[in-house]
Amino acid sequence: VRITIDDFGNKWIIANGAGIAVYNENGTLDDASDDNFKRLNVVQGAGGLPNNSVYAITKDRKGLIWVGTLEGIAVYASPGSVFSDNFADASCPVIDGFCLLRDQRVSTIAVDGANRKWLGTNTGVYVVNPQGNRLLEHYTTENSPLFSDEIRDIQIDPSTGEIFIGTAKGLISLMGDATRGKETSKDLYVFPNPIPYDYDGTVAITCSVTDAEVRITNVAGQLVRALDALGGQAIWDFRDVAGRRLAPGIYLAMVTSSEGKNAGIAKFVVLERP
What we know:
The chain is an all-beta fold and 274 residues long. It folds into 2 domains: 3-175, Methylamine Dehydrogenase, Chain H; 189-270, Immunoglobulin-like, CATH 2.60.40.1930. It is built from no helices and 23 strands. Strands 1-2-3-4 form a 4-stranded antiparallel beta sheet, with no helix packed on it. A 4-stranded antiparallel beta sheet has the order 10-11-12-13, with no helix packed on it. It is elongated and about 70 Å long.
């Protein structure tokens, strides 16, 4: 039995070809008199699912419930009101005028640190933006190292951003660019640090607050580069605002939340030529 618990303590359960069962015991397992139960299916006014065959239920980082069915995606935007009379039916994210993956069996849904959705189907992995109305990537055996286009499961390590994809022919992983952010940025760090003189890769600034702004400055306070983090990590191309590689010296990475709070500072060094 697959169970997803929303932010209100409601248990969303796949009902084996009969839609979704939602249950809440209201904190009293030994007292059934105050329990709430509801069945959601394809009937309008009773869930509005695109199909009663449900394969995946996932809560995203905003608390919305995403459902993968035999005929695409359904989203419940107000799971806290699921037992009320005015509970809204599922909606479908729309891309180019059509419901997201409307003709696809969605077998698994994973949410990364930037609240993007990784959707596993029989035709590979689709990655969409947080709202689901823009396709970001479509990984298949033809354009990626996937062993099979038949995707069985996707799991994401929230601390590293690594995505594990289970296919019909084996498991593979890839490194994502978004991790789950912290409430504060006290664990902020820069990698690599120190940075070799001839380094030509990317620099990761991690454990920042969720979706924060990262400002790179020199020790005199002059702005070198401003970045937006994806979830709990910003990936930097090691260039300043003019596109130039940084000169040797000491620099600061300063992180603030979108509300201007939870500031954190990490020092890093670019080494001199040996």
